[in-house]
Amino acid sequence: MKKININSRNLILLAAFAAGFSIVATATAVVDRNAETVSAAPAVINAIPESTSSYNNEVTKEVTVPVTASADTGTSVVSLATETPAQVSPKTVYSVMEYETPVTMYTSDTVNVRAGAGTDYDKVGKLRWGNQLQVTGETDNGWYEVIYDGITAFIKGDYMVPDLPGTPYVFVGDSRTVQMQMAVGSSDKAYIAKIGEGYSWFKNTALSQIPAYAGNGSVMIINFGVNDLGNVSKYISLINGNIDAWTEAGITVYYAAVTPVGDCTTVTNAQIESFNARMQSELDPRIKWLDGYSYLNQAGYSTADGLHYNLDTYRSLYSYYMSVINSEI
Fold it and tell me: Does this model's pTM top 0.70?
């Protein structure tokens, strides 16, 4: 047998070659056992600085992202996320003419208070009808600069008046009007009403109270009759005799039809229909008609005593009134 002499240098080379061969074999075995995917620890690319660039009105932000390995090619795939912020619309531009001395004005309806003179500015509050404010200036686009809760704010000019306006809605009537107040509240409404009353109370008491509540811009809803249907001629004469004064004061007048009854011993729906027909045909044309009688017969109503309704029925009737009134404004 021929002897082979291997010096120490050759031994080192052989050992290195064997170690390399072992690593390759191990890697191959891993690939064979996981033929579909190869996972690699995520790497982070820090070479891309965070910066912004503008192109076609879009802002692209370069960000650091993880790298995933491809099983087929062994290459690294880098996906860069981009952010395109929403375009910010410019705010309404306006100028303010400051008053030398603040003036007192009043809100004529429920209105938003804003941080600037435009509906695109943030709301800072809300005011109801009749609030008194100190106005410090007016803008060239129809808004008032006001002091609100200690800060400068703005209210659209359409909702500010120099004098305390009439209450938006004034209800005049009997027990059904009293119960409507219980159902819908009175934040922007006034009620001149008393349980069990009719023509005499309307003439001698309620009539003189109307000017204290109803004024320019007010809507007045009158609803009497269920307690004294026989006074229909007197009601017509009284209301027609006052319509000139109400109209001159800026009041819009509605008469609300007497609404239906259930199982009631004191009045019938036939009597109510007769009363309503005469009122509607003989009232001055400037007096508008609210046909709550037909509405409740169609929508339905609930009554415990045959004469008065539950709160839901009053709310439904009130919504009908408002829908008719608002459609005619």
Answer: no
